[in-house]
């Protein structure tokens, strides 16, 4: 992948205002049709066409943002999550095989998540251990205040809390955090649960899975297709009927009343209602 492409895909602004501008920008990039995506992937695979790779990456940056948002519960910068996801996207584009017959987003989502997973695992514990002022004070002083190995006694907890000016609950929470051991990201091949067919592993719980990316992409493309069909159907109506439909159904901010349209066209409100009903009947027939 060229240096220019890498710089382009990873240029995620750090400030919240700039990040929102970046997200709006990538959301404006048109999605590729299945045919366009296939042709670009073939050009990349057979001709090593970097311009084709650039188009594939650019058209999928919006999906990286979507995936990154599902990891927002770890307190890590959203821009960093997106940046790591973009790396995964570029790896996916380089490895994508158009002959398999799947869309790039279905293939790339696994690479995007893998890069974000690695970033979360490397950075979340460091962020989580000491986030408040009291926690940071405990983090830097707790170990040197211990008189022995093992857990604090209640008297020791009370002494530390009084000395550092924090609550006993915060002392015990920090002790638990600093005494905890990391757990394997995936189950090992010789793990008892793995042999018994268990599907539990920490990797499954990193992501908020309340949304399905592939389903949302399909839904978005279907909505776009439906909108195009609707616009084409509207063009088959006469000019007055088009205006009535747009004013009554498509203008979300300021819908027009029957009487306002009646005054505009110097007819009765009932006549406008009839024109509207006839127009809607024609639209339904055109889109059926």
From TrEMBL:
Assigned GO CC terms: cytoplasm
Q: Which SUPFAM superfamilies match?
A: Sigma2 domain of RNA polymerase sigma factors (SSF88946), Sigma3 and sigma4 domains of RNA polymerase sigma factors (SSF88659)
GO MF term list: DNA binding; sigma factor activity
Record's signal peptide:
none
- Does Transcription regulation show up as a keyword for this record? yes
Its localization reads:
Cytoplasm
Residues in the DNA-binding region are 258-277
* Alphabetized UniProt keyword annotations: Cytoplasm, DNA-binding, Sigma factor, Stress response, Transcription, Transcription regulation
User: Matching HAMAP family, A to Z?
Assistant: Sigma70_RpoH
Q: Which NCBIfam families match?
A: PRK06596.1, rpoH_proteo, sigma70-ECF
The free-text function statement in the UniProt record for this protein reads: Sigma factors are initiation factors that promote the attachment of RNA polymerase to specific initiation sites and are then released. This sigma factor is involved in regulation of expression of heat shock genes.
Q: Which family does it belong to?
A: Belongs to the sigma-70 factor family. RpoH subfamily.
Q: How does it assemble?
A: Interacts with the RNA polymerase core enzyme.
State what protein this is by name.
Answer: RNA polymerase sigma factor RpoH
Q: Which organism is it from?
A: Pseudidiomarina atlantica
